[in-house]
Design goal:
Elements lengths: L10 H10 L6 H10 L21 H21 L4 E6 L3 E3 L27 E10 L4 E7 L5 H19 L5 E7 L9 H15 L2 E7 L3 E4 L9
Parallel strand pairs: 1-5, 5-6
Antiparallel strand pairs: 1-3, 2-3, 3-4, 6-7
Helix pairs in contact: 1-2, 4-5
């Protein structure tokens, strides 16, 4: 074992190091040999579960939950009923800040050399709504806090501007969401606002499936009690 613990070597650097050992080889040959040995460029993959120790059978139950969600989604799609996936994103500063990605331009856009909060014009909270069947998305921007009321207002606006026009004969709506955040499975405000602003207002039967652990179903004009 050497003292080298963390390293990031390109094929060019590997070729240079081999040359210092008397082995003449090109960077392209290094890449080809690595590929033949089963190596390739890979990113990290989030597969290790964190948190408390799970009881026996947890993975099987978790898998059944995802299979249930899949079955419900297919049932809605076959009936041509809308299915949306919702999720709140991290706060974003508005201003001349660096953002990943590239655009076709004659010259690069000049941005600030540091991402200081004092240089921002403001801060927004994006809340995304993805129409699974139509493969289209819509992002609402909040300026205060990510609350259950904001999340339901975003869904309500999506339905009034996109969903209701794309699914004029819809009677049901399936919402897929994480268990935490504004659309938490334990939030009574989330459930109550869905009842009042989506079910009662638009006459829809709303089914919510959380990834995982639970799902709730709310019928139109039948408000839940908030204690």
């Amino acid at each position: 074992m050497s003292g080298l613990r963390w390293t990031r070597k390109t094929t060019e650097k590997i070729a240079e190091q081999l040359l210092s050992l008397g082995i003449q080889i090109s960077a392209n040959t290094v890449a080809r040999l690595l590929n033949e040995m089963g190596f390739s460029l890979k990113t990290n993959r989030k597969n290790i579960e964190s948190g408390v120790q799970h009881k026996p059978g947890h993975r099987a139950r978790r898998n059944r939950q995802f299979l249930t969600i899949k079955s419900t989604r297919h049932r809605f799609e076959r009936a041509q009923q809308p299915v949306i996936s919702v999720d709140g994103k991290k706060r974003e500063m508005i201003g001349l800040f660096k953002n990943n990605g590239r655009t076709w331009r004659e010259k690069p856009r000049q941005v600030n050399d540091h991402d200081f909060r004092t240089d921002a014009l403001g801060v927004v909270l994006p809340y995304g709504i993805y129409d699974v069947s139509r493969n289209t998305g819509m992002v609402m921007l909040g300026t205060t806090r990510e609350t259950p009321a904001f999340a339901v207002d975003a869904i309500d606006r999506w339905w009034r501007t996109r969903g209701g026009k794309g699914y004029p004969d819809a009677e049901r709506l399936l919402i897929l969401a994480d268990s935490g955040g504004a659309n938490s499975a334990r939030s009574r405000v989330w459930k109550c606002d869905l009842q009042q602003k989506i079910c009662n207002r638009h006459g829809l039967s709303v089914t919510v499936h959380h990834y995982p652990p639970r799902g709730i179903e709310v019928e139109p004009n039948r408000a839940q009690t908030v204690q």
